[in-house]
Amino acid sequence: LKLLINKEKQDPNNIQIKQKPFVDDRNLISSQFVKERNQDAEEFHTALLTKFSSESTNFKYIEHHLFNFYCDTVTTVNGYNHSYSTRSAHKILQVAVPNIVSTLDSIIFDTMKEEEIDFACAECRGEEAVKAEYKKAKKSVFFHKYPKVLVIQLKRYAFVESQRSINKRAKAKPGEKIPIEGSTGLVNTKVTYKRYMTINQGGQKYANYELIGLVVFGGRGINSGHYVAYVQNSDNKWYEIVDIANQPKEVSAFVALNQQLTYLLYYKKVDKNRQQMIDNEQIAMIIDSYGKDK
Predict the structure, then answer these.
(1) What percent of the chain has pLDDT over 90?
(2) Residue 294 to residue 284: CA distance in whole angstroms
(3) Phi/psi at 171 (nearest 5 deg)?
(4) 265 pLDDT exceeds 90?
(5) Is 211:257 a contact under the CB 8 Å cutoff?
(6) d(CA 79, CA 137)
(7) Residue 254 near residue 134 (C-beta atoms within 8 A)
(8) What whole-number distance in Å separates Cα of residue 283 and Cα of residue 294?
């Protein structure tokens, strides 16, 4: 943790020196991280925060106030006045990537939208007039409180049924149960994302965010590939960071905002109204079109 807390962190050479132990001694963060072996960036993010917390008792408090957010899940049984609500805490917003080109906003919206489920209602079970234990119900998820830094993971791994399994199930006799076989594959659909984003925070409240970093996956499958990070530094410039490179490379915001296989996105909460955010994004796009960032 002390490697990241220093007065010279703006010096590119010092940044390289300070980040080197995270590459060379990553096994000290967690024994599962070994050089020359494929590992998951989200797991590294979680392990790194866990390591920081083990080194400083105060960091757990900091982690909670930086990354924690809360979701309310409301389930209402169709045709009955029975409603249930639960609240859960999270550090990463995990959303599934669809098989068609989508925007990050629409994916988050689909994650929150109302869906119909089969629900075991405790009140219904206690009513003699109701024979069935499971009832059709509507489930909705609302964000109760967003964090100062919203970490979004685009889940690009999905189970893919093998053609052999599909053929076997197609030839199965009525009532015959054939197990589904397959493997986990990479979903390489592009997801477009914005520099500034506004998300509903339950009811009529909204939270405004600005993108400050992202992790991109480069590879053809889950068993081989490489991660590249794009980070907006405190000098408002964007840098490309690759662990095999000698130094961070300065890039334009256009490059950082147009990556194909984004995996993790880091958004900082900002105190700006919606119109101001739109104006800032338009200004940033104009400046960047001339090869300069604000």
Answers:
(1) 13
(2) 7
(3) -95, 0
(4) yes
(5) yes
(6) 9
(7) no
(8) 9
By the 8 A CB rule, do 255 and 247 touch?
Answer: no
Query: Global pTM?
Result: 0.77
Are the C-beta atoms of 199 and 207 separated by less than 8 Å?
yes
Edge-to-edge strand list for the sheet holding 83-90: 83-90, 69-77, 134-145, 115-120
The stretch 221-230 carries a mean pLDDT of 77
| Sign of the CA dihedral running 8, 9, 15, 18 | positive
Residue 4 has pLDDT above 60, yes or no: no
Q: What is the DSSP string of the chain?
A: -GGG--TTTTSHHHHHHHHHHHHHTGGGT-TT--TTS---HHHHHHHHHHHHHHH-TTHHHHHHHHH-EEEEEEEEETTSS-EEEEEEEESSEEEEPPSS-EEHHHHHHHHHS-EEEEEE-HHHHT-TT---SEEEEEEEEEEEE--SEEEEEEE-EEEEE-HHHHHHHHTPPTT------EEEEE----EE--SEEEEE-STT-EEEEEEEEEEEEEEEETTEEEEEEEEE-TTS-EEEE-TTSSS-EEE-HHHHT--SSEEEEEEEE----HHHHHHHHHHHHHHHHTT---
The yes-or-no verdict on residue 290 having pLDDT over 60 is: no
Beta carbons of 216 and 227 less than 8 angstroms apart: yes
CA dist., res. 158 & res. 183, Å (int)? 8
**Dist. CA 30–CA 24, nearest whole Å:** 13
Q: Are 14 and 3 in contact (CB under 8 A)?
A: no
